[in-house]
Design brief:
alpha/beta; Rossmann fold; five-stranded parallel sheet; 7 helices; elongated
């Protein structure tokens, strides 16, 4: 199974549980670390960060004040396995780019920002085979389905306006 580490500040424990539950539902093996487990960055956690397929760091005001969480994010960035998700409007350090805003995410699997986070995760590999398991990852990477809108109405109105313009031209200037 593909292992994902979710790192968070103590105040974001409930949100981290929601993220972990949603990732588990997609088939990922999820490990959640927060609070004292991140500060200071112990050698075991350094190994965990390096061994995870992806590290999802939940950024918040409390996270910015946690040296252990900042160190976890920096290590994951250095390893190339960081997915940074913002839980509030707290600014992230300039070295972290591609931050995904989960501040308004309420657990919906089709929410655009959640889909962007899932699209960043590596494909899942189940324990029993080396093949990539079917998942919502591909669906998350694809754009949301377009809703049938009023496009035909706009086209009909444009055609009618054009026809009225042609008739009006010939009424005013006569036929050639």
């Amino acid at each position: 199974m593909t292992r994902i580490l979710v790192a968070h500040a103590p105040a974001a424990k409930a949100r981290a549980a929601d993220v972990a539950e949603a990732l588990s539902a997609l088939g990922y093996q999820v490990e959640v670390r927060g609070g004292r487990a991140l500060s200071p960055l112990p050698r075991g956690l350094l190994k965990t960060v390096s061994g995870a397929a992806q590290v999802v760091v939940l950024w918040s005001k409390e996270a910015a004040a946690s040296p252990g969480l900042v160190a976890t994010a920096r290590q994951a960035r250095a390893n190339g396995n960081l997915a940074l998700a913002r839980l509030d409007r707290t600014a992230t350090p300039a070295i972290f780019n591609g931050v995904i805003d989960l501040s308004g995410w309420m657990g919906a699997p089709r929410a655009p920002n959640w889909r962007r986070l899932v699209a960043r995760l590596p494909a899942m590999k189940p324990k029993d085979t080396g093949r990539i398991a079917p998942s919502l990852r591909e669906e998350a990477a694809s754009p949301a389905p377009k809703q049938a809108g009023a496009g035909w109405i706009i086209g009909a109105v444009a055609g009618l306006v054009g026809a009225i313009g042609v008739v009006g031209y010939f009424l005013i200037f006569g036929t050639p």
